[in-house]
Amino acid sequence: MKKLLFLYCVIFSVFCVESCQHKKTDKVNIIDENIAFAADQYELLLQSIEDPEKLLNPKSFIDGEMKFIPPQEWTSGFFPGSLWYIYELTGDEKWKNAAIKYTEMLDTIQYYTGNHDVGFMIGCSYGNGYRLAGNENYKDIIVQAAKSLSTRYNPSVGLIQSWNANPSKDWEYPVIIDNMMNLELLFDATEFSGDSSFYNIAVTHADNTIKHHYRSDYSTWHVIDYSKEDGTVRHRNTHQGYADESAWARGQSWGIYGYILCYRKTKDQKYLAQAEKALEFIANHPNYPEDGVPYWDYDAPEVPDTYRDASAGSILASALYELSTYSNKRNYQEWADKIINTLSSPDFRAPLGENGNFILMHSVGSLPHNSEVDVPLNYADYYFLEALKRKKDLKK
Ligand code: GLY
User: Fold this and answer.
1) Is residue 244 helix, strand or coil?
2) Residue 68 domain-assigned?
């Protein structure tokens, strides 16, 4: 009997070690395999957009046609940013050269004041460039871009105005949840310049967004329109979601990512708590799929017969990896891994040479406008690569 028990223990231990090693290998492979794939796919993307006359900035591939964008479009920083991440993930200098070329085509954006998106445009391109290449000139561009973004801050409202007034919607001072992402540029600019006014704008914006932009269940509206005189709320609407009172998926991801970055920059616990609570909304939502990649709106009545949004998934995964280093309220890393596993599967990751050579399929730009529905989008790829980098860092 004792012998039998001993034999059983030996077999059980061997099985455990084997399965542990197998799991470990799986984890290593999913990062390395995705990096190798991303490099091959973006090599093809770079080749396919080469034009002897001009530099072209790709955003999407729709109905067999590549969609290019001008520097002023809100997504112009993501392609250069993805090139920086591929450089960081592969260590191959050729990616650095490409990243520099596509970053510096955005030079004029440091002066752009037409909307709040300068944070995305400059942060993802020059921000990563400064982090990885240390070019001092990039620092000045980031500070100048923060000055441009700050022109949209009205102290009587206490928020950065995302979009210009829109009389057809009766919007006077519209602020969207996406704006939380642009705060990183302001925090960086204070670190680089020593000028605390950028930091102060960022925390005031973040505090007022907690106050007015979140519902009691910690989901967020998309657009809040404020009075420009005194900052009172005039309207609560959506622009890209299913309805004013629904939870547009990418907006939930922007808000969560935004509060995690605010916590990174300030160490203020209330930002961490905001992100944790907003994540509970998602975790407990009956329409949140088991595989972790959200439908385009958590409250779309057609669920499950409607579109997923890979971009909402990749933004969320990247945010969750960072949060896992600050909080163990849930197993955030396991949650992020689940999303990355799904996005890496043939359900979401394109075959080599297809999908316009973007990495991920199945994102949604704006379903109510029938614009960019179920297509690749450069920002889905950007946050997927960032998530891989964060996952890789966690393993170190
Ligand atoms: N920031 C615009 C969007 O997420 O579609």
Assistant:
1) coil
2) yes
Contact (Cβ atoms closer than 8 angstroms) between residue 225 and residue 213 = no
Substitution site in 220, 250, 371 for ligand 1 pocket (most atoms within 8 Å of beta carbon) = 250
Q: Which domain holds residue 85?
A: 63-132
Rg (CA), the chain: 22
Euclidean distance between CA atoms 199 and 201, whole angstroms: 5
82 within some domain: yes
Q: How many domains are there within the chain?
A: 1
Write out the DSSP string of 68-121. E--TTSTTTTHHHHHHHHHHHHH--HHHHHHHHHHHHTTGGGGG--SSTTHHHH
Q: Which atom of ligand 1 is nearest to the CA of 311?
A: 4
Dihedral angle, C-alpha 244, 247, 251, 252, nearest 10 °? 150
Instruction: Please write the tens of the pLDDT for every residue from 170-181.
Output: 999 999 999 999
- pLDDT tens across 291-304, in order? 999 999 999 999 99
Q: Chain-centre distance of CA 33, in angstroms?
A: 21
Q: Which residues pair with 58 in a beta bridge?
A: 68
Question: Catalytic positions, please?
Answer: 117, 178
Residue 250 in contact with ligand 1 by CB distance below 6 A: yes
Which tens digits make up the pLDDT trace of 70-103? 999 999 999 999 999 999 999 999 999 999 999 9
Q: Please report whether residue 218 resides in a domain.
A: no
Residue 122 lies in a domain: yes
> How many angstroms separate the alpha carbon of residue 178 from the centre of ligand 1?
6
Q: For ligand 1, what atom is nearest to the CA of residue 240?
A: 5
